[in-house]
Known about the structure:
By secondary structure, this protein is an alpha/beta fold. It has one domain: 3-Layer(aba) Sandwich (Rossmann fold), CATH 3.40.50. The chain is built from six helices and four strands; from the N terminus they run βαβααβαβαα. The protein has helices at about 15-25, 50-55, 75-80, 85-95, 105-110, 120-145; strands at about 1-5, 35-40, 80-85, 105. A four-stranded parallel β-sheet has the order 2-1-3-4, with helices on both faces. Strand 3 (about 80-85), helix 4 and strand 4 (about 105) form a beta-alpha-beta unit. Helix 1 (about 15-25) crosses helix 6 and helix 2 crosses helix 6. It is globular and about 35 Å long.
Amino acid sequence: MKALIVCTGNTCRSxxxxxxxxxxxxxxxxxxxxxxxxxxxxxxKPISMHTxxxxxxxxxxxxxxxLSRFCSRKLFDEADSVFTMTKEQADFLSRLYGDERKxxxxxxxxxxxxxxxxxGGPAAYSAVYSIFEGLxxxxxxxxxxxNGGN
Length: 150
């Protein structure tokens, strides 16, 4: 099973949740799930230093050499589920690639869009990390169910 997490720039939210989700799945012994992230913008930038600082503070491993990437047709098509930070991103991907059945805004687990910490300081990134922590169990359960309970 392949899960794709999408935000705008793929430098803040999606790489943070990607790292957190990989750890959560491994900690729970859930195998057979590949987690990747991408953005709706086309550029190649490193992960935000505030994102890496937040992940470091919680002992969550990530690929520090990774550059942001666009949610290409190939990435989208290969994913079984595409999780977006906002309804607007979900609509954008639906218009771009169709197949809205596999696009799930994270508001389905959180109740509202995930705020973008870009341009904010460490507290904004800490707040997003806390949001992800709060929805991680629901997201892991959803993915495990799609993955046949493994």
